[in-house]
Structure formats: C-alpha cells, structure tokens
Amino acid sequence: MADRAPDPRMLAVLKKAVGVLQEEGIPFALAGSMACWALGGPPSRHDVDLALLQSDAERALEALAAAGFRIERPPEGWLVKVWDDGILDPVDTRNAIAIALSAALNAPIESPHYGVFRM
C-alpha cells in the first residue's frame, strides 16, 4: 500500500491556518488536494487550499498576516496566496535546535556598561 501520509509541513500549515481562522470565527472549507486526501485520495504534498466567503476574505487575510503568514495577491482577482515561511521540516528540527544553541552559547558576552547597584 502506498504511503497515505501527506507532507508533515502541509499538515502543520493546515493546522496553523485553520487555528487562526477558527479563533477569529471565520468559516472556511477545506478544498483541493488536501480535501481529496481527507476523503481517501492520494496524499497532498504541494499546498493547502481553503475556500472562504468573499465577504470574509479581508478579515481572514488580516488575521493570517497577524499570525505570521505572508500574503501574496496574484493578478487573478479570485485568488490570494498565503505563505508560511516559518515551517520547519520535522526531520530538520534537531539540527535547527543544535544550530540555535551553538549560536547562543558561542555569542560573545559584553561587559556591562554600568556600575554596581546596591539596594
């Protein structure tokens, strides 16, 4: 049987976007390849499609932008792309944490520019 799991990054983006929309009370529908996967189709490895009412679009974009998503408005008037540049592949998590810890531990510690305080 073929691997039925979608790309873990796509699931993370889906959860984050859906969480933002639900928190704001904005109705949406899962669409595209992720919706097909949810109904038994092949796994989604490309993107996450959400359908919104046009009347909710601006409010949704504001909420997603506030949550750190990058908004792109292509020439098609009916389409808006939202990118989450902060997604880290779970396989790379250990390496990213090691790099961050190494940078923090090896950063120079400057001497303070103030005297001793007594209270």
Question: What does this entry show, briefly?
Answer:
The protein is of the alpha+beta class and 119 residues long. The protein has one domain.
Can you offer a commentary on this structure?
With 119 residues, the chain is an alpha+beta fold. It has one domain (8-106). It is 39% helix and 10% strand. The protein contains 4 helices and 4 strands; from the N terminus they run αβαβαββα. The protein has helices at 8-23, 32-38, 57-66, 93-106, and strands at residues 29-31, 49-51, 70-72, 81-83. The longest helix is centred in the first third of the chain and has 16 residues, at 8-23. The mean pLDDT is 84.
Q: Mean pLDDT, rounded to whole units?
A: 84
Count helical runs. Answer: 4
Task: Strand order, main sheet: write it out.
Answer: 1-2
What's the assembly state of these chains? Answer: single chain
Number of domains: 1
Name the beta content range. Answer: 5-15%
Largest sheet, strands/sense/barrel:
2 strands, antiparallel
Spans of at least 5 consecutive residues with low confidence: none
- The helix/strand class is alpha+beta
Number of strands: 4
Round the Cα radius of gyration to an integer and report it: 21 Å
**How far apart lie the N and C ends?**
71 Å
The level of helicity is 25-40%
| H/E element order | HEHEHEEH
Shape: extended
